[in-house]
Design goal:
alpha/beta; three-stranded antiparallel beta sheet; five-stranded mixed beta sheet; globular; 342 residues
Length: 342
């Protein structure tokens, strides 16, 4: 997930959200009559962040600022990142929606966690292996046996092995060090030879910090199997069954937020910073630049936010199975649903 990590006190978030919720809404927004909660009583929906505020959340805070949640009878409660995986929060019932990673959905669902992807946060995969631009590495095959810096993500090994195989390595060798710090800094100081970055976030941030990267996009080497969304919103099957109408209104509000942010990234960036001044106030240049870069990733070619399809999981499931991470992947149709989208 995005690696811009900032500590934000919950009180600051809630105060900012309350202020933004009072702002005027975009009267031209699609679905403005999507309906309030039964009886006109607003319903609280908890949304857990995967990391501290960054540009992947432009849609959330824009939807708040534009009154998209309020007009649908939804009061969003943002749960700031606190080193707790989405799956843990889903399993314990601490959140209604959370942000996760498609490989994690496959892995955890195969291990019995009853949850489902309900929307793609971005429409495609911009993940890439990255090396220093002035390094000797000009293709993925040359990385076999060198040191990868990551965060211990279970799917990294099989996915990277598949990339190396696609680039001609018969028996890829994957060596990893798990970092608890900035991977770009580790790369720049040559403590690692390569890492994985999210296009539009990590690479743009690195450039602003004076670190030039050479990247090898997953989708270029894995084709459709590597073009899954960077991140997805997930909900437990139980929440979908019992709170489906509230989730549907929540996703309608998010769709409006992300669609607006895609068209007006500079304004969305201002909204994000205003709602998270303590965390992002001193990072305006990074937020502005990454907002513009990421905005184009939110919508699919038809201009819609959120749709998922079998192809987002099918090829990836085969890679994880071949790498021994999952024994029996669930069918793609069990991993996602689009029926809650507007």
């Amino acid at each position: 997930m995005p690696r811009l990590r900032f500590a934000v006190p919950l009180a600051v978030l809630l105060a900012a959200m309350a202020a933004l919720a009072a702002c005027g809404s975009d009267s031209s927004s699609r679905g403005s009559t999507a309906g309030s909660a039964p009886g006109g009583t607003p319903q609280t929906v908890k949304i857990a962040l995967d990391y501290s505020p960054n540009v992947n959340y432009l849609g959330i805070y824009t939807a708040i600022a534009k009154g998209e949640f309020a007009k649908r009878g939804i009061t969003p409660e943002i749960i700031p990142y606190a080193n707790t995986p989405a799956e843990t929060l889903i399993r314990s019932g601490k959140t209604d929606l959370a942000i996760s990673y498609p490989p994690d959905v496959i892995i955890n669902r195969s291990q019995g966690l009853k949850y489902t992807a309900v929307a793609a946060l971005v429409a495609r995969n911009t993940t890439a292996l990255a090396v220093l631009a002035d390094s000797k590495f000009t293709r993925p095959a040359q990385l076999s046996g060198t040191l990868y810096g990551g965060f211990g993500i279970q799917s990294d090994a099989p996915i990277i092995a598949a990339i190396l195989k696609a680039d001609g390595v018969a028996k890829p060798e994957f060596r990893q060090v798990v970092l608890n710090t900035d991977v770009i800094s580790a790369l720049d100081h040559q403590r690692i030879q390569y890492t994985a970055v999210f296009g539009g976030i990590d690479d743009v941030t690195a450039g602003l910090q004076g670190v030039r990267l050479r990247t090898f996009p997953y989708a270029k080497y894995l084709g459709a199997a590597g073009n899954y969304p960077n991140a997805v919103y997930v909900a437990s099957d139980e929440t979908i069954a019992t709170r489906g109408p509230a989730l549907k209104r929540t996703l309608a509000a998010l769709a409006q937020g992300y669609e607006y942010a895609a068209k007006h990234p500079a304004e969305a960036a201002k909204i994000l910073i205003a709602a998270n001044e303590t965390a992002l106030g001193k990072s305006k240049d990074i937020v502005d630049a990454t907002a513009v870069a990421v905005a184009k990733q939110f919508l699919d070619p038809s201009g819609a936010w959120g749709p998922l399809q079998d192809e987002d999981f099918a090829g990836l499931s085969k890679i994880l199975q071949a790498g021994g991470v999952v024994k029996r992947p669930p069918p793609p149709a069990d991993l996602y649903t689009d029926r809650l989208l507007p």
